[in-house]
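Researcher: Next entry in the queue.
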Amino acid sequence: MIRHLHIENYALIQHLDIDFHPGFSVITGETGAGKSIIIGAIGLLMGQRADSRTIKAGAKRCVVEIEMNVADYGMETFFEEADLDYDEGCCIIRREVTAAGKSRAFINDTPVSLSLLKEIGEMLIDVHSQHKNLLLGKEDFQISTLDLLAKNDALLDSYKRAYSLFRQTEKELEEAVAMAKQSQEEEDYLRFQYEQIAEAELQENEQEELEEELQTLEHAEDIKSTLFSVVRIMQSDGESADVLNMLRQGIHELRSISSVYSQAEAIADRMDSCYIELKDVAGELEDGADSVEYNPKRQEQVSERLNTIYTLEKKHGVDSVCQLLELQHMLGKKLSAIDGSGELIERLCCQVEENRRTATSLALQLSAARAKAAEAMEAEMRTKLLPLGMPNAQFRCEVVTDEQTLTPKGCAQVQFLFNANKSGELKPVSQVASGGEIARVMLSVKALIAGAVKLPTIIFDEIDTGVSGKVAEKMAIMMREMGNQNRQVISITHLPQIAAHGQHHYKVYKEDTEDTTLSHIVPLVYEQRVEELAHMLSGEDLTQAAIDNARALIENSSPSVMP
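Model: Structure for this entry, 563 residues:
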C-alpha cells in the first residue's frame, strides 16, 4: 500500500509530499486541477514512457518517489530473485527524468531497468482509468480475468512453454521443407559440380609441382646443356686442366712445403674441404644433367593436367587447388543434406505432432479451468450487479474450446455477454452496454479480481463516469468493501455520493502565482470535507441546504470520519 508520495517538478507540481492510508480514499477537485497529473506521475513509477516535456518549465529534472508497505503480500522471493533489498516490507520506488530526456529508476536505492520497474509496478498498483473500460470487450482481458479467478498461473506458464516449443519445432519443419524443396531444385547442378571436381582427383600441392615440372620440361635441352657445361668446367675427362684437378694439384703442392712453411698445412686443409664440397656439387650437377630429358609426351600430359586445373579454378572462381577441394567438400555436405532431408523432415514431423499433443493437453486443461471459473464468475457478477441498479442484468461468460486451433493463450475463445434487461438476446458487452453500465460491470469485474489476487493498491480514475445518485453510492460501497480487504483503494471522483464514503479524503486544487500555476493536494478534515461536498452538490455558491446535505451524506456514509 502507498504510504507516502513525493513529486518534484512534474508538470504543474513544483513540490508535493502527501501521506496515504489503507482502506478507501477519495480524491476530488475541479476539472483541470491536476488529478490526472498525479496519475501520470504514478505512471512513471510503473515503467511508463518518460517525456521530458512533462518536466516543470525551468527545472533540470523531475523526481517521483513512492514509499509502499508490501509486508503482507508475499514478495520476498521477488525481491531476492531481483537482487533487491527487502527492508521489512518497505519498498521505495524512485524515478528521475532529466530535461535532456534521460531517465533513471531505483528500487530501495538500487538502480533497476524499466522492465523490472514495470514488473514490480504491475504487482503493486493497478491504475484503472476511463479508457480502460474499453478493455472489457477485449478477449485478452477476458481470458486474463478468468485465469486470475481460476489461479491458472502455473498451468499457464507450463502451456506457454509447451506452445513455444511446438511453434519452434513447427517453424523448423517449415524451414526444413522449404530448404529441401530448394535444394532438390538445385540438386542436379550441385551434383554436376561435385562430380566434375571429384573426377579430377586433385591433390593438395599438385598444381605447384606440375607447374615446376612443366617449366623443366619446356627448357630441358637448355638445362641439360648448361649442367654438362658446368660439369666439364669442374671436372674434365681429358688431360686439359679443370677446376677440381687444379684444386687437387694445389693441395698437393702446399703439403709438399708444409715442413718448411708451417701455415701451408692449414691452408691445404681448408682447400681440401672446398675440394670435397665442389666434388659433391659436380656429382649433383652430373646427376641432374642425366635426369633431365626432353620428353614431349610427358610435357603434353602435364600441360593437359594443368589446363584441367586452370579450367576448374576459373569456372568456380577460385585461385588454388586447396580452394577447389574446399568447394568439393562443401558441395558434398549439401548433397548429403539433400539425401538426408527426408529423414530430417520425418523426424521433425514426429516432434511437431508430439509437441502439439502436449500443448493441446495443457490447453484443454486451461479451458476446463476457465469454464469452471466462468460459472463461478457468472454467479458472482449477478450478485454484484444487483445492488448497482441492474436487478435484471444478465451476464454470461462464454468459453468455446477448439483444440484444433492453438494460440499463445490456449485453445479457448472467451467472450463476456451482457444484457441489462430480463428479456433480449445476450450480446458482447461492448456492443450492448451503455457507458454507465460498462463502468458498473467493470467495477464488478475489478472487485472479483481484487478478491482473487493480492494487489496492494487499486486506483480508480473516474470509473463513475455515466452514473449518479443511488448507483454511485452502491459503487462507493463496493470500493470501500474492496478497501477493507487488506487493500488500499483510491477513487478519483466528481460525485459527492462516492466522495462521502471515503475513509480518507484528499483535495487537488490549483494556485496561480505571479509567474506560474501550481497544483497541490491536501488531506481534508471533517469540516473541510463537508465544505468540499457542499461545493460538489451546489457549485461555487454555498447554501446552507448544500452544507446540511453534505454533512448528512458523510454521516450516513462514513460515520467513522465524524468529528
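Model: The radius of gyration is 47 Å.
Researcher: Noted, moving on.
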